[in-house]
Amino acid sequence: MKKQASDLSRRQLLKTLALGSAAGAVATVSGQALAATEATATAAKQADGYRETEHVRSYYDTLRSK
């Protein structure tokens, strides 16, 4: 009977290792996808940044004339 108990614990260990590595792979892939989504959202926000409009240009002109 001792040999059978040893086989069961070994099988349980192998199942646990397989499930753990699969879960780690899923977490890694989903984390990378989330990071890519955040980078895209950040780039979109930066596109609406500084714009040199007419009143800004006139202000710069007043600074240069001094």
UniProtKB/TrEMBL annotation:
<dbReference type="InterPro" id="IPR014177">
    <property type="entry name" value="Formate_DH_TAT-contain"/>
</dbReference>
<keyword id="KW-0732">Signal</keyword>
<dbReference type="InterPro" id="IPR006311">
    <property type="entry name" value="TAT_signal"/>
</dbReference>
<dbReference type="InterPro" id="IPR019546">
    <property type="entry name" value="TAT_signal_bac_arc"/>
</dbReference>
<feature type="signal peptide">
    <location>
        <begin position="1"/>
        <end position="35"/>
    </location>
</feature>
<protein>
    <submittedName>
        <fullName>Twin-arginine translocation signal domain-containing protein</fullName>
    </submittedName>
</protein>
